[in-house]
Write a structure and sequence with these properties.
InterPro entries: DUF5931 (IPR045975), HATPase_C_sf (IPR036890), HATPase_dom (IPR003594), Sensor_HK_TwoCompSys (IPR050482)
Radius of gyration: 32 Å
Protein name: Signal transduction histidine kinase
Pfam family, one: DUF5931
Largest sheet: 6 strands, mixed
Low-confidence stretches: 234-243, 379-393
Shape: elongated
Structural class: alpha+beta
Strand order of the largest sheet: 6-7-5-4-2-8
Number of domains: 2
Order of helices and strands: HHHHHHHHEHEEHEEHHEEE
GO molecular function, one term: kinase activity
GO biological process, one term: phosphorelay signal transduction system
Number of strands: 8
Number of helices: 12
């Protein structure tokens, strides 16, 4: 609502100015053929101008914009009765005058280009009915209908861009605030917990035996904690209003990094809707779970994120023994559906694809490709001309 307030104020000024112009026309025409009806229509216009100005400033909604259009159409159609024979000739301004442009602008700000164009078409049709089919003048039509249509489309486009800019600014402010908080927490954690974990890892390696295993675990927790405090905040809840917000998939993937898992992501963000980003990260996590389960504790894995033509591509590769031919079909027949459901199922729900390449003794490579929704596509990011962030233990 914040960025829309200036629009509603500007529309209110336009309504008041148009109302004054309509009053001047009524006075100059002596109230037209039926002065009482003319001033009654003007009174309705004045009351609605005051009410609409207040309601749009407080809480605009679908009912309000629909009522706004209906009231304006009724006042416009009343011109044929108020003006009498004068309503037919081309070029004669209706009783409403330019006041009919208010709903077009309001629909454009509230609903965007298409809504503004729809309101313009409805009011143009009503205006043509007032003038009469026999009195069609393309010059008047171009000056009226086309101008209203252009106003609705242009104002709707500008309003949409303003809303997008406000959302991006809000996101940037939230990220900046979260970054400052993470830095504050990181300083305290670095001076206490991380130093203790690093000491345990070092001493465990020096002592050897069972202490070496404790040292290795402490090292992994140190790495995970470092990555946690430097990564982005958790994406919004799937059922919240902000679930449509874009989330950097790279930030979620970097949380998967451990002493045995190297995560490489581009410096520029790979943006997806929050729900999609979580599913991609979960699928990559399921692939890493398979590496730990089937390749042993000493196996290493690499996660690489990149972008393609309207897609985000995540590759998980390991140096394990590989998957024998037909093993995946056997596992699925036995009811082991790790890849079938946790990975392929997730990608299928997002409209993506999964490619598995494996040879015995040469490791396994799983490539996840998920399309970026059309409305969320921005400039391409990836390896071309950009710096890469590679996390290594």
């Amino acid at each position: 609502m914040g960025i829309e307030r200036p629009f509603w104020r500007a529309i209110a000024v336009y309504r008041v100015a148009s109302l004054c112009y309509a009053a001047v026309l009524l006075l100059s025409a002596g109230g037209y053929a039926r002065p009482v009806a003319g001033w009654a229509v003007f009174a309705v216009m004045a009351l609605w101008t005051a009410g609409a100005t207040y309601w749009y400033a407080s809480r605009p909604g679908r009912v309000l914009v629909a009522t706004d259009l209906l009231v304006t159409v009724v006042c416009l159609l009343a011109s044929r009765y108020v003006q009498g024979p004068e309503a037919g000739p081309s070029g004669v301004m209706p009783v409403t005058a330019t006041w009919v442009g208010g709903p077009v602008l309001a629909w454009a700000v509230y609903g965007g280009r298409r809504a503004g164009a729809t309101a313009a078409i409805v009011l143009s049709a009503a205006d043509q009915w007032v003038r009469g089919a026999r009195e069609l003048d393309f010059g008047v039509l171009l000056k009226g209908a086309v101008l209203m249509l252009m106003a609705g489309v242009v104002v709707g486009h500008v309003a949409r861009l303003a809303k997008q800019a406000e959302a991006r600014l809000q996101r940037a402010v939230e990220i900046e605030a979260a970054g400052r908080e993470r830095e504050r927490l990181a300083r305290g954690i670095h001076d206490s917990v991380l130093q203790v974990l690093a000491l345990v890892q070092r001493r465990g390696q020096e002592i050897g035996g069972a202490a070496a295993e404790l040292g290795r675990l402490a090292g992994e927790q140190e790495v995970a904690l470092r990555e946690l405090i430097r990564s982005e905040p958790a994406p919004p809840d799937e059922h919240s209003e902000s679930s449509r917000a874009l989330v950097d998939v790279s930030a979620l993937l970097r949380r998967l990094g451990t002493a045995s898992v190297t995560v490489s992501t581009p410096a520029a963000p790979l943006l997806l809707p929050a729900a999609h980003a979580r599913e991609v990260a979960a699928a990559a996590g399921a692939a890493l779970d398979n590496v730990r389960r089937h390749c042993g504790a000493d196996a290493r894995a690499w996660v690489l994120a990149d972008s393609g033509e309207g897609t985000v591509i995540v590759t998980v590769r390991d140096n394990g023994p590989g998957i024998p031919d037909g093993r995946l079909r056997e596992a699925e027949a036995e009811g082991r559906l790790g890849i079938a459901r946790s990975i392929r199922g997730r990608m299928a729900d997002l409209g993506g694809t999964v490619s598995v390449v494996s040879h015995p003794g040469q490791g396994t490579e799983i490539e996840l490709t998920v399309p970026v929704p059309e409305d969320d596509r921005g400039p391409r990011t990836g390896w071309r001309g950009l710096e890469w962030r590679t996390w290594r233990p």
